[in-house]
């Protein structure tokens, strides 16, 4: 009887030890990876408890790639004249800051906007370099060395980037190669004046945004889900009130459709 009891106890202890060893083997790869930054100790329940090792954390931080190394690496063989992937989709978003003037004499308007463009450039992917940061905030100097869609408001009368106190251009490159640019612009564009109900005129002002150098097979422009936003809830001039702002993609023009982002502002007296 004692022999059987001893044998059962031995088997139970043996199974428990084997189970514990199998758990350790199964987790050994994870533990080795985590141990780069942590030390480990056995807690009161027999489990493993991580202890932060400051020296290891500091060493791991120093080993990540800094901004200078990343930029020098990705720009080494970069070709700014090559379309990313042969065809690229550019997402567009506009924030209307202020509508400054509407002229019924010259049939145009002036406004200040922020315009964002976003696209993916696989040649700028630096995720494999162990970056210290997964997005790089840069200025217009580097932007001149990158491929861009060379987009513009093709029907604007004038368009200027604000330069006070420096060019108002923002550039962000994500680790996967996504590029986000943002410009602050002062624009002057055309308006269509409806004077049939004078003096209660309706004024429609439109701006069309597209790539100047590439066709739609090479660069596809489209609105983000938010499209166009106002930075102030109510925008009024001395004689006009903004009724609505629309962002349109497919606009019927003659025998076809305009397949470019279109910004349309409607005003009334």
Automatic annotation (TrEMBL):
CDD domains: LGIC_ECD_GABAAR (cd18990)
Pfam families per the UniProt record, alphabetical: Neur_chan_LBD
Protein family membership: Belongs to the ligand-gated ion channel (TC 1.A.9) family.
Gene3D superfamilies: Neurotransmitter-gated ion-channel ligand-binding domain (2.70.170.10)
PANTHER family cross-referenced by the UniProt entry: NEUROTRANSMITTER GATED ION CHANNEL
Neurotransmitter-gated ion-channel ligand-binding domain segment(s): 70-250
Signal peptide interval: 1-19
Annotated compartments: Membrane
Membrane topology: Multi-pass membrane protein
GO molecular function, one term: transmembrane signaling receptor activity
Entry GO terms, CC: membrane
Name the record gives this protein: Neurotransmitter-gated ion-channel ligand binding domain protein
Keyword Ion transport: yes
Superkingdom in the source lineage: Eukaryota
SUPFAM superfamilies, alphabetized: Nicotinic receptor ligand binding domain-like
Annotated InterPro entries: Neur_chan_lig-bd (IPR006202), Neur_chan_lig-bd_sf (IPR036734), Neur_channel (IPR006201), Neurotransmitter_ion_chnl_CS (IPR018000)
Keyword annotations from UniProtKB, A to Z: Ion channel, Ion transport, Membrane, Signal, Transport
């Amino acid at each position: 009887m004692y022999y059987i009891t001893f044998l059962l106890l031995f088997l139970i202890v043996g199974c428990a030890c084997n189970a514990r060893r199998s758990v350790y083997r199964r987790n050994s790869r994870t533990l080795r990876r985590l141990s780069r930054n942590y030390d480990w100790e056995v807690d009161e329940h027999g489990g493993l408890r991580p202890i932060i090792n400051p020296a290891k954390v500091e060493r791991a931080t120093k080993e990540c790639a800094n901004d200078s190394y990343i930029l020098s690496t990705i720009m080494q063989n970069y070709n700014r004249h090559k379309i990313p992937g042969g065809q690229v989709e550019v997402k567009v978003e506009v924030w209307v800051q202020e509508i400054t003037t509407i002229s019924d004499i010259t049939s145009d308007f002036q406004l200040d906007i922020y315009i964002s463009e976003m696209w993916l450039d696989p040649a700028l992917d630096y995720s494999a370099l162990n970056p210290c940061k997964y997005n790089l905030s840069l200025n217009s100097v580097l932007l001149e060395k990158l491929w861009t869609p060379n987009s513009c408001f093709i029907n604007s009368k004038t368009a200027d980037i604000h330069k006070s106190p420096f060019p108002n251009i923002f550039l962000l490159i994500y680790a996967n190669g996504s590029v986000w640019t943002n410009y602050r612009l002062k624009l002057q564009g055309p308006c269509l004046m409806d004077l049939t109900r004078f003096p209660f005129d309706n004024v429609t002002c439109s701006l069309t945004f597209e790539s100047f150098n590439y066709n739609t097979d090479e660069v596809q422009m489209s609105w983000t889900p938010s499209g166009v936003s106002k930075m102030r809830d109510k925008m009024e001039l001395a004689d006009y009130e903004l009724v609505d702002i629309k962002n349109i993609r497919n606009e019927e023009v003659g025998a076809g459709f305009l397949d470019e982002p279109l910004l349309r502002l409607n005003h009334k007296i």
